[in-house]
Amino acid sequence: MEKQKEKFDARLLLVTTLLISICSIIYELIISSISSYLQGDSIFQFSITIGLYMSAMGIGSYLSKYIKNDLFNKFIFIEISIGVLGGFSSLILFLANIYTQIYVLIMYLLIILIGVFVGLEIPILTRIIENNESNVRENLAHIFTFDYIGGLIGSIAFPLLLFPQVGFITTSFLVGTINVFVAILIIWKYKKFIINYNSLRYFSAFIFVCMILFLCFGGVITKNIESGLYRDDIILSEQTEYQKIVLTKHKDDLRLFLDGNLQFSSKDEYRYHEALVHIPMMYAQSHDRVLILGGGDGLAVREVLKYEDVKEIVLVDIDKEMTDLCASNEQISKLNNNSLKSEKLKIINEDGYIFVQKNEEKFDVIIIDFPDPNNENLNKLYTNVFYNYIKANLKEGGVMVCQSTSPYYAKKSFWCINKTIKSQFNTVIPYHLQVPSFGDWGFNLAFNGQNIRKDLNVETKYLNKNNIDTLFLFGNDEILSMDEVEENDMFKPVLITYYNREVQNW
What we know:
The chain is an alpha/beta fold and 506 residues long. The chain has 3 domains: 2-226, MFS general substrate transporter like domains (Growth Hormone, Chain: A, Up-down Bundle); 231-263, no CATH class; 267-503, 3-Layer(aba) Sandwich (Rossmann fold), CATH 3.40.50.150. Helices cover 55% and strands 15% of the residues. The protein is built from 18 helices and 11 strands. The protein has helices spanning 2-7, 11-39, 42-63, 71-87, 89-99, 103-132, 136-189, 197-216, 218-229, 269-283, 299-304, 320-328, 330-335, 352-358, 376-379, 384-392, 411-422, 494-503, and strands at 233-239, 244-250, 253-258, 261-265, 289-294, 312-316, 345-348, 363-369, 394-403, 427-435, 439-448. β3 and β4 form a beta hairpin. The longest helix is centred in the N-terminal third of the chain and has 54 residues, at 136-189. It is elongated and about 90 Å long.
């Protein structure tokens, strides 16, 4: 035994600790991110994933005490199991969302199974070192050091490198392949400790080749999965630093999706954008300078350019790839009339919150066209603090409008936005209209001073002098008392809770 200890080299075990720690944190991030993407409510999804995962790891650590013999073989089995489960986790989750009604149950089972196996890893590694290494204390310290460092590397690599470059499914297969590769390293380095060495070597090599094949075809699998998520044919799919952009087409209906959420249908987008733009433009004292926050598709810009007295339009959209795409893509640029190439337009690719916070040049009209508030990053763009900055960016007599989701399907969300805007503006008027692709859709109009409505004097496809007044009428099933909702702020983001609860029944 003493002779074995002298010859035992624990350095590779320390390297494997780093690798398995990287893999472990990435699985956790993948599952929580996919669940946020598919189910919404990112705070809940990340919280439940972390909680279940940590608990399952605790169960795995507890169960490790019953593993007494053949530690190397058991460790190799655990690594291969994690590699297969984790590697196929993204694929399983997307398929569960498309083809079953039990996505949540499958997600929980995946989290628990992966967590239990991960919980077994470090205790078994520790006991391998205890049984074969004389310098136990130092090596155990190294194991935990590498474990924590691996967690840091994984948590940085996933959002900054892996997810933006290759997406969920390919990342899963890549990380799963790493786990299986760890098993192969252990087999190669410590073969004298392994029972049934040849059988285990061939089996692990077979699994490794399978994982490599799925990794190579990850892009193809992703495209096939995406086709099941969307009704129409996908003609473009890009993952940017900030969002997943998907463009679909069926006959002459062009649709844009961001992170799976419909942004427009070419069949009826003019209804939405005419209401978004022309109502505030009718009330504004001047049209000299117009600020559009969001709206990277250029459709709101198209409507603003109908006013000859507009001297400058500033479009602030955080995603440069989005604005570049909508300026260069032939089908989108045809829909927006090449508005993103207008000489009157200045495009700034920056966080809208940061822009209004630091901007010093005021605007006559501010048009807020952000996606619905379904996560924390978007929530800050619907808070009282943000609307305070918006007011500071408006000239006297200026007008602001904010898309405010559906007053029918998301009643509390709509009136929460209305109440939050009222905390900063004295006069706020809600209005809405039917957009066939979305249903009943609402907006909130706010004034910085006295404003008088003028006639609509530009060409439109939907709005006219006879139907404009109907936009300001609400049915009893769309009205909510202000006592039933709270104001949304940075420190208590009630809007996310309202929206995520309502969207479940949407």
